[in-house]
Amino acid sequence: MDLYHQLIAQLEQFYNGSPFYVKFNLCASLLFFLMIFLFILFIVNTRYRKSVIEAKRKTIEKKLSGLINEYLFSDEYEEQPTEDFKNYLQQQSLAKEVAIEQFLIFTENFRGDYIERLRLLFEKVGLADYLFHILKKGFWAEKVKAVYVLSELNIKKRDDLIFPLLLSDHPKLKAHAILYFVKTADNKPLSFLGHLQDDLSLWEQIHIEHILRYYYLGEMPNFSLYLKHRLESVRIFAVRMIRLFNQFESTKALIPMLNEEEPEVKKEVIRTLTALNIIEALPFIMQALKTNVLLVQQEVLRAITEMGNYEMLVALDINLNNPSLAFAFEKAQYQLKLH
Questions:
Q1: Cα(114)–Cα(69) distance, rounded to whole angstroms?
Q2: C-alpha to C-alpha distance for 222 and 51, rounded to whole angstroms
Q3: pLDDT given at position 53
Q4: Chain-centre distance of CA 37, in angstroms?
Q5: Other CB atoms within 10 A of residue 265 CB
Q6: Do 165 and 174 form a contact (C-beta atoms < 8 A)?
Q7: Which of helix, strand or coil describes residue 230?
Q8: What is d(CA 209, CA 281) in angstroms, rounded to the nearest whole number?
Q9: Closest C-alpha among 108, 156, 166 to residue 132
Q10: Of 141, 209, 305, 313, which is the most exposed, with the fewest CB atoms less than 10 Å away?
Q11: CA–CA–CA angle 74, 76, 77 (5° rounding)
């Protein structure tokens, strides 16, 4: 101990007798090495905790997978095992998250009656109520996951909690709410449009079209029902969908829309009538030239090029002072001459 005290005393004497810059360098070096040590300790602790959690997760996955399999394939799996499942979820803090992931995996691999049994078990063990609680109290990212799981399992008992998400400022949350309403609909998959307060963005319109094509399993909706919606973007979307899904029976409802004030709506109506080759609408389309809006006038010229003839074009009473319109007129003349 005397040697130890002597060493400490010599170090203290050396430190006290050293210039300021030496003291500063010594303190900085010690602090630096201490930070390195703490950082290494943090990494080791993090990796250890991650490995422990991962091992625990695998144990829970195995347990829950076995319980779900037993429920799906055992005729004797009734109330008591369901209570055991429910109690297990309450005892393990990580179990609910793992259970939701397991249900999604099973949903991807089963069809028909098995999906209905999975949905029933999901509700019995309280996971649906857990997601409903997240929709009430959770952060927006948690709500995104909750809505996605509910749509995958076709659980639609609390639509009242999801309607407000259509008004969310978070694009992902709004997109998943739209996915939910379209995917879980037995019919009228666009009824949620009545709850919108803000215009649909172009990406949201594309998103809805994608869901209708690849996720919605019911009969395609009658898009003409939304031609009088209060939001301009919804009316434009409905007109586009009539074109993309070839709903010829709705074209009669489009012709009166040529009298609408919004140029974007009028342009989209002309484009749809042209794409569906509704020749009897051409006289009404030509009247739209009176609208002194370039994009509408250009669309009228395209319609005449597609469905009319050269004589119709040259007989038009049109002011060609605008260079862009004059170019569109010359292009239409050239194309009609080739016919």
A1: 11
A2: 54
A3: 65
A4: 44
A5: 20
A6: yes
A7: coil
A8: 26
A9: 156
A10: 141
A11: 70
Phi, psi for 203 (deg, rounded to 5): -65, -35
Query: Distances from the Cα of 141 to the Cαs of 23, 136, 147, 195, 292, in angstroms?
Result: 50, 13, 10, 22, 47
- Would you say 245 and 224 are in contact if contact means Cβ atoms under 8 Å apart? no
Residue pair 281/299 in contact by the 8 Å Cβ criterion: no
Distance CA 160, CA 58 (A): 36
CB 128, CB 154: distance < 8 Å: no
Q: Tell me the three state secondary structure of residue 293.
A: coil
Q: What is the pLDDT of residue 273?
A: 92
Find tokens 């210039």 and name the residue: 19
| Nearest residue to 268 (alpha-carbon basis) of 316, 291, 235 | 235
Rounded to an integer, what distance in angstroms lies between the CA atom of residue 248 and that of residue 306?
17
- Amino acid of residue 93: S
pLDDT of residue 239: 94
Pick the closest to residue 236 from 261, 258, 267 (CA basis). 267
d(CA 33, CA 40): 11
CA 89, CA 62: separation in Å to the nearest integer? 13
The DSSP code sequence of 267-320 is: HHHHHHHHHTT-GGGHHHHHHGGGS--HHHHHHHHHHHHHHS-HHHHHT-----
- 231-255 CB burial, b ≥16 within 10 A, e <16: eebbbbbbbbbbbeeebeebbebbb
Q: φ and ψ at 291, to 5 degrees? A: -70, 115
Is residue 302 helix, strand or coil? helix
Which residue matches tokens 């929709």? 135
User: Average pLDDT of each block of 10 consecutive residues along the chain (339 residues)?
Assistant: 61 63 70 81 77 72 78 63 74 79 83 80 86 88 90 86 88 89 86 87 89 85 90 93 92 88 90 91 85 84 85 78 82 75
C-alpha dihedral, 223 to 226 to 227 to 231, nearest 10°: -140
pLDDT at residue 96 in the model? 84
Task: Give me 170's structure tokens.
Answer: 């978070």
CB 187 within 8 A of CB 225: no
Q: What 3-state class would DSSP assign to 155?
A: coil
